[in-house]
From TrEMBL, chains A, B:
Keywords for the protein's UniProt record, in alphabetical order: ATP-binding, Lipid biosynthesis, Lipid metabolism, Lyase, Nucleotide-binding, Steroid biosynthesis, Steroid metabolism, Sterol biosynthesis, Sterol metabolism
Domain Diphosphomevalonate decarboxylase-like N-terminal: 10-183
EC number(s) reported in the record: 4.1.1.33
EC main group: lyase
Listed name of the protein: Diphosphomevalonate decarboxylase
A GO biological process held by the record: isopentenyl diphosphate biosynthetic process, mevalonate pathway
Reactions catalysed: (R)-5-diphosphomevalonate + ATP = isopentenyl diphosphate + ADP + phosphate + CO2
Gene Ontology molecular function: ATP binding; diphosphomevalonate decarboxylase activity
Pathway involvement of the protein, from the record: Isoprenoid biosynthesis; isopentenyl diphosphate biosynthesis via mevalonate pathway; isopentenyl diphosphate from (R)-mevalonate: step 3/3
The keyword Cell wall biogenesis/degradation belongs to this UniProt entry's keyword annotation: no
Any matching Pfam family: MVD-like_N
């Protein structure tokens, strides 16, 4: 008897040109295009195992070992049903294909980073879910990553950008059915492998507004959002694409910072206003701005999503300098574990500040205000996992202990 | 021998529709119109004594007892010279007028509120300076407040709005020479005397970007500012003027909050971004938003200028409720001295929260995060002070001890 099972992992992505606002909330069609960098799954990933079996009585999903309700018509159900429909088409066309589309699914998913880190776990999660079911159904052999991104998009908008590696654009599209609202790769990771990222995990007492409800409030109430959508983002998409193609870091970095600022500006222009950055986030902006000023060139770019965490894009050659500054001004609550071992012989935070850096401009905060620091880089797209030890379901189709 | 001297006091004003950006930095011509409420001089004021005397050897200014350099061609010098020129015209036209325009001036100015409070002291200061010299030169008898506002505007833009009481618009104007960029009264204080204001003085470790340099950085770098100037503010000016005329507090309040939000949004859209609100400011926003939500109507409006202080506009009948909430969630560092004695028999901060108010949404901060609370209301325009005890210069033309 065959075991119909597949395991995939998928990466996190962090946008440089931000997605904020839907023109269709059911299909998850955005008001503007966006662009992100896919981060390396060696460090941050969602892993999902999907199994189809005649003995299963209902589609069941476990996230980090905990069962999650699959709401009929909800986002997870929509993704599963669309993949199942495509499998059925393939089965009907080829009688040799086992009829597994009629089986229920058991799906187990696991993030190797804490949810509390405030990283967009739903993007990696839906990308891994769609990738694993597509592999299980052998759809990955006939559908491109862009085609699969159409499905992941309906799970969580930004998940579509985690369907490929490198530098990825989510084209807003124009069609009412959303069939042109998909991800395309602007450049693979190999084009610019020196692109590294430092994630500064910022403590925050309060849970902010969810991005799903927040972005629609912005669409409904911000007078500035329409100007951003129609007159700012289109040009920025062109400009950052060109910067990536030319490996022009200063231009890439300036556009990234400008767009992070503008995303938070339209949040503030919302009624009532939405705040995601806190005083520590602001101080990290000051640190990056001062670092670039002192260097006489733009060497680092901050960007903030719907939370206080700061992601700093920086070329490999400058990671050490900026990482040292972050830890020097914001002593971490957690030990920094660097996969690149940049500080093998030295202690992070104890190196001198760069020449000309004015420490007085960075507001000081208690130790632990930045909880942790994650060092990663541009990465590849979803992976097919064949190592049996990684599969997340046991022989009975139940999730293994996490 | 005559003593040529006059003393004037002038009020603070706090904008509801914000001024941010100059189209002409020398003449101080704004990129958009703005509108403010003049606050009561009984509580907050700048007082200035100006004296002309043949014995004086140079124009000299003291602020709070400390001599300030009057830079040739600088803003103070421009105001003085324009008033002197107008005096000279009057003297030339009427030979009975004493020829005091040829005398140097001694000017002493005093704010009755701490500079550290972060209130726009330059607005009240320049309004008092222009008013006192205009009185000394008898120009106040021939020039309207709007005409004098043209002069005060060149000292500090928002000072033009302190030249009159009540609700005051600064019309941006269109002429290159600035002769149509002046203040006009939308309504006197008597029209809506129930309009009260609570100023929450927020502690801030860091001095932010000066508004003079900040606003020009926004003009130069914010893609959203032009949309605000051309498409948002003109309608808001009409709408808030109508709301004031109709005494429609909810509309007045919503526009005030929206425009505060948008001002800080364009600051954030600046490169590098400008932040004036801090975490305590944000928590005060949450408090006001929750207060309005629980009340089922808009009873209070927050507004923030170029600093973390929160000014809350609220009708007299609701001051007690919101003042109690502020102090309950933000225990003050300083004792609250209420000129209206609203809490005569009760203790501020110890009354119950309003029905339905969800305390959980207001982030909590250490006591003293809001340093002090000032309760005032809409007030009148500059006053002529005849009480000898108030004059700020002694017999020798030196500032009296402050």
């Amino acid at each position: 008897m065959s075991l119909y099972q597949a395991t995939a992992s998928a990466p996190v992505n962090i946008a440089c040109i931000k997605y904020w606002g839907k023109r269709d909330t059911a299909l998850i069609l955005p008001t503007n295009s966006s662009l992100s960098v896919t981060l390396d799954q060696d460090h941050l990933r969602s892993t999902t195992t999907s199994r189809a079996d005649a003995s299963f009585t209902k589609d069941t999903l476990w996230l980090n070992g905990k069962e999650e309700v699959i709401k009929p018509g909800g986002r997870t159900a929509v993704c599963i049903e669309e993949l199942r429909r495509l499998r059925k088409v393939a089965e009907d066309a080829n009688s040799n294909e086992p009829k597994i589309s009629s089986f229920k699914l058991h799906i187990a998913s696991y993030n190797n980073f804490p949810t509390a880190a405030g990283l967009a776990s739903s993007a990696a999660g839906f990308a891994a879910l769609v990738s694993s079911i597509a592999q299980l159904y052998s759809l990955d052999k006939v559908l491109s990553a862009s085609q699969l991104s159409l499905i992941a998009r309906q799970g969580s908008g930004s998940a579509c950008r985690s369907l490929m590696g490198g530098f990825v654009a989510w084209q807003a599209g124009q069609l009412a059915d959303g069939s042109d609202s998909l991800a395309v790769q602007v450049a693979p990771r190999e084009h610019w492998p020196e692109m590294h990222a430092l994630i500064c995990v910022v403590s925050d007492a309060k849970k902010g507004t969810s991005s799903t409800s927040g972005m629609q409030r912005t669409v409904e109430t911000s007078p500035l959002l329409q100007h951003r959508i129609n007159h700012v983002v289109p040009q920025r998409m062109k400009d950052i694409t060109a910067a990536i193609q030319a490996r022009d870091f200063p231009t890439f970095a300036r556009l990234t910072m400008q767009d992070s600022n503008q995303f938070h500006a339209v949040c503030l222009d919302t009624e009532p206003p939405i705040f995601y950055m806190n005083d520590v986030s602001r101080a990290l902006v000051q640190l990056v701005v001062e670092y670039n000023r002192a260097a006489g060139e733009v060497r680092a770019a901050y960007t903030y999503d719907a939370g206080p965490n700061c992601v700093i894009y920086v070329l490999q050659k400058h990671v050490k300098e900026i990482a040292n500054l972050v830890v020097r001004f914001f002593p971490l609550a957690e030990t920094f574990k660097d996969p690149f071992a940049l500080f093998a012989s030295e202690k992070i935070g104890e190196l001198a500040v760069p020449e000309g850096f004015n420490s007085a401009v960075v507001a000081s905060f208690p130790a632990g205000s930045v909880k942790g620091l994650i060092h990663t880089r541009v990465g590849d797209g979803p992976r097919k996992i064949t190592d049996d030890a990684v599969h997340l379901l046991d022989a009975q189709g139940q999730p293994k202990p996490v």
